[in-house]
Every structure is written in structure tokens, then in C-alpha cells.
Amino acid sequence: MPATSSARLEARISPELQQTIKRAADIEGRSLTDFVVGAALDAAYRTIEQAEVIRLSRDDQQRFAEALLSPPAPSPGLKRAMKRHDKLLRSE
């Protein structure tokens, strides 16, 4: 059987907070540790999703789709940047 590794996480909380969390864990039929780890993981996933997922209104979705389907002509600045980019790639 392969060895598993784990890390330890400690937190100091008030007895009242511990009792509240323990009560919630008991209601779900989970150990205190399992409940806290599960709650922390859920919060971590929500935080990551909020940071990585872009949510657009319907109007913004429509504008985005239109820009993809009918992109505007490149501006002079973009044309200069594309030329510099091409030049850099050719010199490598």
C-alpha cells in the first residue's frame, strides 16, 4: 500500500465557536475535523471560482459575441505592435 502524506492545520477558537461547529458537524453526522476540512475546501473552491470565472451580463455577452464574430479593424498602435512582434520572432 503506498504511503500517504498529510499536513496539519491548527486554529485557536473560542469554546462557543467550537460548540457551534461541533453541533453543525453532529447534525450532518460528520466528525468535527471532517466538517471543518469540508467547509474550508468549499470556501476555497468558491474563492478560486470568484477569482477565475468572469461573469457577464446578457448585454455584455452579446457585445463579446459580436466582437468575436465581427472584430474591429486593427488600430495603428496594434499594427505597430504586430510588426514589432513579428520582427522579434524572426530574430530568434
UniProtKB/TrEMBL annotation:
Region described as Disordered: spans on this chain: 68-92
Residue ranges annotated as compositionally biased, kind Basic residues, are 80-92
Tell me, which GO biological process terms does this entry list?
A: regulation of DNA-templated transcription
- UniProt feature coiled coil, ranges: none
* Protein family (similarity comment): Belongs to the TacA antitoxin family.
Read off the InterPro entries from this record. Ribbon_hlx_hlx, TacA_1-like
Per the UniProt record, which residue ranges are transmembrane? none
Q: What is this protein called?
A: DUF1778 domain-containing protein
What are the record keywords, sorted?
Toxin-antitoxin system
What organism does the UniProt record list as the source? Xylophilus rhododendri
Instruction: Report the leader peptide range.
Output: none
The organism's superkingdom is given as Bacteria
